[in-house]
Amino acid sequence: MTTIESPTAAGSGSAATKNFTDLRVTADTSPERLSAIATEAFAGFSALIDKYEITYDEYRVLKQWLIDVGAGGEWPLLLDVFVEHDIEEVNSRKYQGSKGSIEGPYYLPDAPLLPARCTLPMRGRDARQTPLVLHGQVTGLDGTPLPAATIEIWHADAEGYYSGFAPHLPEWNLRGTVVTDGDGRYEITTIQPAPYQIPTDGPTGKFIEAAGWHPWRPAHLHLRVAAHRRHPIITQLYFQGGDWLDSDVASATKPELLLDPKPDAAGRNCVRYDFVLDPE
Ligand code: DHB
Ligand code: FE
C-alpha cells in the first residue's frame, strides 16, 4: 500500500517560518516609538482583561496556545491572517496606483523568469483544471507603458497548496516572474485557483474553530509588480461571484481587486487587469 503524504499546518507553517527567519529583517524603530506602542498595546490587554474578567484558566490556555503557535511554526500564518491587512492598509495610504493587498506567508523571491506571454509551470494534474488567462499592461500613473516590468505571480493549486511550502509539490509549481514586453504588456496562462483553507490541524486552525469562525479565504492570485524607479506593489486578485469574498478570514479583499473572467472559444477563462505603479 502506498500513502500519499498529505501536507499539514505544521509542514506549511514551519516552511513559512524558516523562509521568513532566513531574511533576518530589521526596522529603525526608536526606543521612544517602541515604548509608546508597547505601552498602549499592554494597556489594551489590561482593558480587555478587566472588561472580560479573564480567568486564570483562560490565561493559562492562552499561554499554552501561544507556545503551540511558536512550536508549530505558525506565527507567519497567524499574523498574516489577522494583522497584515491593517499594516497593508496604513502603508498604502499615500499611493495612488493599483490597490495592494496582503503578501501572506507564501511568497518566494527569485521565481523563474518567464517571457511576457507565458504559461506558469504546472503538473499534469493542474493542467486538468480550467485554464485562466490573465493579461494586461503595466504603466506609470500618467499611463506611460513600463517595458521590462516584473510581475511575480504565485498561487495555490486546486487543493489549496502552495509550492515551496508543501513537500509533495515540484519546486516553483504555479509560480513565475513574468517580464513585460516593449509596450509593458503581459499575458499569463495558468489555472483557475480554488478557495484556500487555513490549515485546520494546527493552533491557528484550532483557534478559528474554537471561536466558531470559518477558515476560508476566497480563491486568489498573489502578485508583486515592480519596475525601474517605481514603487512596487504587492497585491491579490479575486474572482467575482466566488465563495468567501464577503467573509475572507484574512480580511484582504477589496472591490478594486475583483476579476470577472469570460470564457473564450477554447473554454479558457480570460480577463484583463492593468497595473499602475507610483513613482518610488
Ligand atoms: C495565509 C495563506 C494565504 O494563502 C494567504 O494569502 C494569506 C494567509 C495563511 O495561511 O495564513
Ligand atoms: Fe494566498
Automatic annotation (TrEMBL):
GO terms for biological process: catechol-containing compound metabolic process. One of its GO terms (molecular function) is ferric iron binding. Keywords: Dioxygenase, Iron, Metal-binding, Oxidoreductase. Coiled coil: none annotated. It comes from the Bacteria. Its cofactor is Fe(3+). It comes from Gordonia lacunae. This is Catechol 1,2-dioxygenase. Signal peptide: none annotated. Belongs to the intradiol ring-cleavage dioxygenase family. The keyword Oxidoreductase applies. Gene3D superfamilies: Aromatic compound dioxygenase (2.60.130.10), Catechol 1,2-dioxygenase multimerisation domain-like (6.10.10.40). The keyword Oxidoreductase applies. Residues 134-162 form the Intradiol ring-cleavage dioxygenases domain.
